Hints:
By secondary structure, the protein is of the alpha+beta class. It folds into two domains: 19-148, Glutaredoxin (3-Layer(aba) Sandwich), CATH 3.40.30.10; 173-227, no CATH class. Helices cover 36% and strands 10% of the residues. It is built from nine helices and six strands. It has helices at 4-17, 39-43, 46-59, 99-108, 133-136, 154-159, 164-172, 175-185, 197-206, and strands at 31-36, 65-70, 82-85, 89-91, 213-214, 226-227. The protein has a four-stranded mixed beta sheet with strand order 2-1-3-4, with helices on one face. Strands 5-6 form a two-stranded antiparallel ribbon. A hairpin with a 3-residue loop joins strand 3 (82-85) and strand 4 (89-91). The longest helix has 14 residues, at 4-17. Mean pLDDT is 91; it is low at 223-228. Bound molecules: FE2/S2 (inorganic) cluster.
Amino acid sequence: MKTLQEIHKIREEKRKELELRVNTKADTREKHILVCHGTGCTSSKSPEILENFRRILKEKNITNVRVIKTGCFGLCAKGPIVIIRPEDTFYANCTPDDCEEIIQSHIVEGKIVDRLLAKDIDGSKVNSLDELNFYKKQKRIALKNCGVINPEDIDEYLAFDGYLALEKVLKDMSQDEVIDVIKKSGLRGRGGAGFPTGQKWELTKMAEGKTKYVVCNADEGDPRSFYG
Ligand code: FES
């Protein structure tokens, strides 16, 4: 990838291909089985679940279903989590032995595997992630694509607007405008002192010299941390 045009093309094509991940009414015969590969689910055998799904689909010669690894859905106690899209069916506490039934019942016969549906805090079963009270109270911003895309596939990241902010900065904004936006955002470092990022960038810009170094020492709040 060398040009913005190439990135735009990938973004557009891949986004169409992945529409069923975010649109339950997507016009497609394809299905995606999303298997959580966050730390919690991985330690409860989600890699084995993913392998089993792929093996069974191959054995049954089912070609319209893809199995995708995702990041953490944020509800690790229900892991390993498996979600089938576009319908957004939410299976919880899955084991490698459940794969055969999910493929046969859900994929081949179109019947939800009732016993694997996630349960809400009051014990009632839910069909999809959004129906859980735990998620109803959340508005994910930075993590909104976690559990939706494969974090190891850069094209999937691009399809869901990855690097869009960087593109805007490089094409349309001056250095001062960027610093101003970051200052207004309230973004802070996470090294302990919580030093404001916008201020750090501003001080770095003001420092004399062509090459600049940002030194993060033990006291992030100390302006002497910045050297031009
Ligand atoms: S690791 Fe799977 S939901 Fe968190």
